[in-house]
Design brief:
By secondary structure, this protein is of the alpha+beta class. It has 3 domains: 18-69 and 83-312, alpha-galactosidase from lactobacil brevis (Beta-galactosidase, Chain A, domain 5, Distorted Sandwich); 324-622, TIM Barrel, CATH 3.20.20.70; 626-732, Immunoglobulin-like (Sandwich), CATH 2.60.40.1180. The protein has 14 helices and 41 strands. α4 runs parallel beside α5 (387-395) and α7 (445-461) runs parallel beside α8. Bound molecules: (2R,3S,4R,5S)-2-(hydroxymethyl)piperidine-3,4,5-triol.
Length: 733
């Protein structure tokens, strides 16, 4: 649990823009239209005075007055001197809401009062950061807070707590809090379930706490993704919004709390299980990064900040996102070399670029009942190993990818038979099975070394460009080692280490984070992987919504979306190929159906969609996400506009049957107001089934309109039948 020294925490002395001894100052950081004003108290952790609109250049005197102007009047029954909420809310400073730190040392040191000892500030053109050290000598604890405003205008923070006392200190909870102003009156976040991940929910922000807790040991289908508050009626394009995201793939908690005083805070962090973090003398615990996003342009403004941040990472995938063909819904466990090679040939024919062998290839894996943990190519099906398939696929010009689920085991496996103690468990019992599987205890160094060695061996033997890394059960009663102490925290960090170690050994390999579909989607897993699988549901009607809300955090190029079969394997709903392909188009595109049995005409149509994806992927994967505020729940409009406001591609999507016979005009927001555009239908997404069968006059010829008119007035949409979409291309003239 002792944390290694972190070279990034403090820049070497003399670093430009870095000032030590900033205590007592009011700090003003600015980036991308955001101001973050923080008062660095000399006796407590800081107070965030403003997080929101850029305030422009402010003098020291103006900042001091900004601090003074926020001091509240003393109400009846209040503290003699009212106190603002601190970044680490503490009772010692009058806070009677959810505490920033919960913990104790055998019942003592349960209430802290941290006093700062040093503050280091780095200020630059695009944001800056604060590193603040504080101690509570009485409690025997030291704390380091990091707060950064990033060039994207996002802020992020984390805390490190160190036990400086002699006896063990148990941490129950550590979460910093960001205040939001009283104009925020509504709460928004996401819930969901398997195959219907990320379902929006909304309610008024009232006194009390709206708390979202996750004890699944993985991010979950119902993770809030972003927990946002905003001004009344905020939408995709309008309203002021403050949002938070916890970058962690284990248990986590996000909350917004409004006290009866009116003070409202957003807090988030890891959810620790009982006794999970017990610090011996000198040991420390560090929270995950927690992100904050502000926008006065609604939820799209929030999404734009996250996308900009992710796209600026040095390890953001630099290459165009390849067209994937995945074998899962094509053949499931029915693996046969010739059939798989036929599929590869059909994949190459439609223009695919990457072929992923999904599940079933390793020892004992004839169904999902057995084999997890036995990471050796099954000699029965593959007498020559995977070589004939890998070579065959590569000879067709496709990259080869392989499915693995390294964190899991089946009790029916050689691994568990040899090492029954390598399974997470507690209380002398094995957790209830889920998909006939249990979780490998990666906190056990031998288990960790074993799985690392096996994956390394496979990646060394075969030319593998891509791993689909799956994780198919919740972590229940996840006790580690012989003591059975709660182990989700250690397990989550071990998974990150395992991914990093493999990536270091095999730098060219890309990794997809999959977890029963889209159950591990968060910003920390994306630090260790290259794409998330959006959902096991390929039904475009569901996928439209799943992608609409997943892109609230993750840009489309990092979200896997495949064209599946009709009827859909998860919902049994039938759909046209154009609806399936036009939905997958707006993500990291792939195909997951038996192409060898597809009707030739349909296969040709699919090839046209693949060609379109290749043509527009740069636009879709670098552009700005646009979601129009809908007035009719039967349809939605979304699109992408090039960063310079040039070209755009929009989809008008009819979900259900409308109540009115003609849809009227749909607005196409997000383009440059002054620029002139040619608007036309984009093939092959230009021939949807329509009601009445009459062509729209403007669609035949196209129209020329400026961005302001397209956003304010829009164009008449075709009277689409349900589950149809039309693509509209906007080209700047
Ligand atoms: C669950 C994943 O979400 C699916 O895409 C597929 O990879 C299966 N596991 C394979 O078992």
């Amino acid at each position: 649990m002792t944390l290694p020294p972190d070279p990034d925490l403090r820049p070497p002395p003399g670093t430009p823009g870095a000032t030590a001894g900033a205590l007592g100052r009011v700090l003003h950081l600015r980036a991308a239209g955001v101001s973050l004003v923080v008062q660095l108290h000399t006796t407590s952790t800081p107070t965030v005075l403003h997080w929101g609109a850029d305030l422009g250049d402010l003098s020291e005197a103006a900042l001091a007055d900004l601090a003074l102007s926020g001091r509240t009047a003393r109400a009846n029954n209040d503290l003699d001197e009212p106190q603002p909420v601190r970044l680490l809310p503490e009772q010692a400073w009058g806070w009677n809401g959810r505490p920033g730190l919960s913990g104790h040392r055998a019942g003592t040191a349960w209430s802290t009062r941290f006093a700062p000892t040093a503050a280091l500030v780095e200020e630059g053109d695009g944001g800056g950061r604060l590193v603040l050290d504080a101690v509570d000598a009485e409690a025997g604890l030291a704390l380091t807070l990091e707060l950064e405003l990033l060039p994207s205008g996002l802020l992020r923070h984390r805390a490190t707590l160190t036990n400086t006392g002699a006896a063990e200190y148990e941490v129950a909870d550590l979460a910093l809090a960001l205040p939001v102003p009283p104009v925020a009156t509504e709460v928004f976040d996401l819930a969901g379930r398997w195959a219907k991940e990320r379902v929006p929910q909304r309610r008024p922000l009232t006194v009390g706490a709206h708390v979202r807790e996750n004890r699944r040991g993985r991010t979950g289908p119902d993770a809030p993704l972003v927990l946002a508050v905003g001004t009344q009626g905020f939408g995709f394009r309008t309203g002021e919004v403050w949002a938070t995201h916890t970058a962690f793939s284990g248990n986590h908690r996000s909350s917004v709390e409004k006290l009866s005083s009116g003070t409202t805070t957003l807090a988030a962090g890891e959810l620790l299980l009982p006794g999970e973090v017990r610090l011996a003398s000198g040991e420390g615990y560090r929270t995950p990064w927690v992100f904050g996003a502000w926008s006065d342009e609604g939820l799209d403004g929030i999404a734009a900040r996250f996308h900009r941040h992710l796209r600026a990472r040095p390890h953001h995938p630099p290459r165009p996102r390849p067209v994937v063909v995945n074998t899962w819904e094509a053949v499931y466990f029915d693996l046969d070399l010739e059939r798989l090679l036929d599929l590869a040939r059909a994949a190459a024919q439609v223009g695919a670029e990457r072929y992923v062998l999904d599940d079933g290839w390793f020892r004992h894996r004839r169904s999902d009942d057995a084999g997890l943990g036995d990471w050796y190519v099954d000699e029965g099906i593959w007498p020559q190993g995977l070589h004939p398939l890998v070579d065959g696929v590569r000879a067709l010009g496709l990259e080869f990818g392989l499915w693995v689920e390294p964190e899991m085991v089946n009790p029916d496996s050689d691994l568990v038979r040899a090492h029954p103690d390598w399974v997470l468990r507690t209380g002398g019992r094995t957790p209830l099975p889920s998909r006939q599987q249990q979780v490998l205890d990666l906190g056990n160094p031998d288990a960790y070394a074993h799985v690392l060695a096996r994956l390394d061996a496979i990646l060394t033997e075969y030319e593998i460009a891509y791993l689909k890394w799956d994780h198919n059960r919740d972590l229940l009663e996840a006790g580690s080692g012989p003591s059975g102490r709660a182990g989700v925290h250690a397990q989550t960090l071990a998974v990150y280490r395992l991914l990093d170690e493999l990536r270091a050994r095999h730098p060219g390999v890309e990794i997809e984070s999959c977890s029963s579909g889209g159950l591990r989607v968060d910003l920390e897993i994306l630090e260790h992987t290259d794409r998330v699988w959006g959902s096991d549901c390929l039904d475009p009607l569901e996928r439209q919504q799943i992608q609409r809300w997943t892109t609230q955090l993750v840009p489309p190029e990092l979200i896997g979306s495949h064209v599946g079969a009709s009827p859909s394997h998860t919902t049994h709903r039938s759909s046209d190929l154009s609806f399936r392909a036009g939905t997958a188009l707006f993500a990291s595109f792939g195909v997951e159906t038996d192409l060898t049995r597809m009707d030739p005409a349909e296969r040709e149509e699919l090839a046209r969609w693949v060609a379109l994806y290749k043509e527009v992927r740069e636009l879709l994967h670098t552009g700005t996400l646009v979601r129009a505020d809908d007035h009719d729940p039967s349809f939605l409009v979304h699109g992408t506009v090039a960063p310079d406001g040039g070209d755009g591609l929009f989809a008008v999507v009819q979900l259900g049957t409308p109540d009115t016979s003609v849809p009227g005009r749909v607005r196409l927001p997000g383009l440059s107001p002054q620029a002139e555009y040619e608007v036309s239908a984009q093939a092959p997404g230009d021939v949807p089934a329509v009601r009445g069968g009459k062509d729209l006059p403007w669609l035949a010829s196209g129209v020329r309109m400026n961005g302001r008119t397209l956003a304010a007035v829009g164009v008449a949409a075709p009277a689409l039948q349900p589950q149809q979409l039309v693509l509209l291309r906007t080209r700047r003239l």
